[in-house]
Every structure is written in C-alpha cells, then in structure tokens.
ABC-type transport auxiliary lipoprotein family protein
Amino acid sequence: MNRLSSIAMLVTALGLTACSSPAPIHYYTLLPPSSANARTVQVQSPFLIDVLPVGLPEYLDQQPLVVRQSVSGGAVSVLDEERWVGPLGDELRNALSVQVAERLGTQDVSGLSSSADQKVVRIKVQIRRMDAWLNNHVQLEAGWSLGIVQGSKARLVCQGGFTEAAQNGYPALIQAQQRAVGALAARIATDVRNWGSSQQAKCSTE
C-alpha cells in the first residue's frame, strides 16, 4: 500500500507540475519580409538619410503587446505571452529605416560617418498613438520632421494617420501593424524625395 501511495503521489505531483507550466511566449517584429519591399525601390536618391530614434508614448515602449479592450473604452491589456522581439521604439525605428531607405534607393547612415559633400536628410518621427484592437483594426497617428544635416535650418514638419483592418488572431494583428508602418514609411519617403530635392516642397497627403 505504501508503494501504491507513493506512486499516486508522484503522478499527482507530475500532473500539478504540468498544469503550472507557463504559457508559451510568441515573438513578433514590425519588419516585414524583404520581398514585400523589393517592388517599392525607386531610382537611387542623390542624398542619404539619418533616421533618429522614434518617439512614442512611454506605455507603448516595451516588449509586451499593448491592445485596447474595446473600441469605445479606455482600458488596455498588456500581453506578456505576445511580445515584440525588442522594445517597440527600436522595432519602429528599424522598420522605418529599412523601408524608407529601400523606397528611396539610399542608405540610412545613422551612427555612421559620411563625407561632407554628401547631402543627408535627417528624419525625426514621433508616434502619437498606435492603437490595436484584436480581430478589428489598428490605428497609427504620427508626426515627422525633415532637416538637412549640413548647415541648413530649414525644416519640413508633417503628420498623418493610418488605419488597417485586422483579421482574426495576433499574427494578423501584427500584419496590420506592419502595413500601417509601411504606409507611414511610404509617406515619409515621398516627403524626403520631394523636400530633399527642393525645400519649397510641401507635405504629401497620400
């Protein structure tokens, strides 16, 4: 009987251990597959870009995903099992850097040295909101400013909003956020192309 009791206790302990195993963590990135950007490459730009760190509300700048619980309410959920591969600010800067550079046919020289005769357009992005509703949609609002690194004090300050439908599940939600960031990158690239060529250019509207 003692042996049977010991076996029963062991089985019970193993069952409790299995029940208490932590849920798996899923990691996501805002950087889409490179094939998704290849078709957007334009004629090579006569200038380089310098994408600064992206500003965003502090509560968003973390690894766990932050989603709104309802369209009308103010409650949010922080999802420990659904995470970005790094802080959201880093994810945004990397995604914008790659996509804007690819669209312009240029290079992001942030943190690198460049020759004095190469024009560099500095890009500063501030995320105002980046809301996500599971199985519904995502909404991104941002402002950005452009300036020439070499001496000129001229600035172009723009803003825009982007909404993408999100299908069922977290992977689809991330894809919607990737599309919204891609739309932001496309708008910034258009402004950089126009304003980098002529500082009389205005903000694009699409």
